[in-house]
């Protein structure tokens, strides 16, 4: 955005009510992730975080009517299977 926009303030300020909660949610996710790193092995935390891909695919389909849901869900499911292999083996 900074490379392509002449005036960033015109893009950020009108959309601050949408951007602020997104930024706060992202900060909260990172905060929780760092706490989890202290509590359990990094591999487990990273593996669990990849399962959010399935949730993202489903939410994208439900709320944004994204297409090719079968292909996206297949890819996300393969990632979750990989997580299970990491955690269980």
- The total beta strand count reads 0
Number of self-contained structural domains: 2
How much is the radius of gyration in Å? Answer: 17 Å
Which class of secondary structure composition applies to the elements? mainly alpha
* Subunit arrangement of the protein: single chain
Give the amount of beta strand, in percent: under 5%
Average pLDDT figure: 85
How far apart lie the N and C ends? 43 Å
Characterization of the model:
It is a single chain. The protein has 89 residues and is mainly alpha-helical. The protein has 2 domains: 1-39; 41-89. 79% of the residues lie in helices and 0% in strands. The protein has 5 helices and no strands. It has helices spanning 9-12, 16-39, 42-50, 52-64, 69-88. Helix 3 (42-50) packs antiparallel against helix 5 (69-88) and helix 4 (52-64) runs antiparallel to helix 5 (69-88).
Task: Provide keyphrases for this structure.
mainly alpha, 2 domains, 89 residues
What order do the helices and strands come in, and which of them pair?
Blueprint: H1 9-12, H2 16-39, H3 42-50, H4 52-64, H5 69-88
Helix pairs in contact: 3-5, 4-5
In short, what is this structure?
This protein is an all-alpha fold and 89 residues long. The chain folds into two domains: 1-39; 41-89.
